[in-house]
Inverse folding.
């Protein structure tokens, strides 16, 4: 996807797994929406200037996913509104991507927000609570057998 759009992409994943209790498909949808927005934001830039990175981090008892780009960033007066349904600045946009992303993240007891990078570009982040076993310090390193397995994708509650 990134290669086809001439975007350079970096990925950094934590060495230690960050198990969350989440619907895998829905989380993929969140990340893909963020990545498509990042690439849309860089569409008018020349090839070598298009950079996107996706990385994970652990912040206290949360797993955090960050998607950042080297595009124009988000005007300060729009930064909160971009999550509203039908808010779009794109000719062909529906304005639903971030609204759906927020609904999914919140249904997993997480948060999603937007920042701007100092050097220009947008930073979209979301965080999800880690599963309880992961919250003890370094427990993941000491008990890899129990925790390295990917978190099971549970069907959404009916
Ligand atoms: N990475 C980004 N850089 C700059 N602006 C962004 C970025 N991500 C989102 N935005 C702004 O937020 C608006 C809303 O994004 P959202 O994904 O909800 O809708 P959309 O991309 O316009 O349309 P859709 O996702 O429904 O195709 C965008 O139109 C754009 O103005
Ligand atoms: Mg979008």
């Amino acid at each position: 996807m990134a290669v086809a759009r001439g975007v350079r992409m970096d990925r950094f994943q934590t060495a230690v797994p960050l198990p969350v209790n989440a619907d895998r498909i829905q989380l993929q949808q969140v990340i893909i929406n963020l990545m498509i927005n990042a690439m849309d934001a860089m569409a008018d830039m020349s090839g070598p200037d298009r950079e996107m990175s996706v990385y994970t981090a652990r912040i206290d008892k949360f797993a955090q996913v960050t998607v950042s780009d080297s595009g124009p960033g988000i005007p300060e007066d729009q930064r909160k509104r971009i999550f509203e349904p039908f808010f779009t600045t794109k000719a062909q946009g529906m304005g639903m991507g971030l609204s759906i992303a927020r609904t999914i993240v919140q249904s997993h007891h997480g948060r999603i927000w937007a920042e701007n990078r100092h050097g220009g570009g947008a930073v979209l982040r979301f965080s999800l609570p880690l599963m309880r076993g992961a919250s003890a310090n370094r427990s993941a390193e000491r008990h890899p057998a129990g925790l390295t397995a990917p978190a099971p994708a549970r069907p959404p509650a009916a």
User: Anything to note?
Assistant: Residues 33, 37-38, 41, 69, 71, 74, 82, 87-90, 93-99, 122 surround adenosine-5'-triphosphate (ligand 1) (CB under 6 Å). Helices lie at 24-41, 97-107, 139-142, 144-147. Residues 80 and 114 are 8 Å apart (CA to CA).
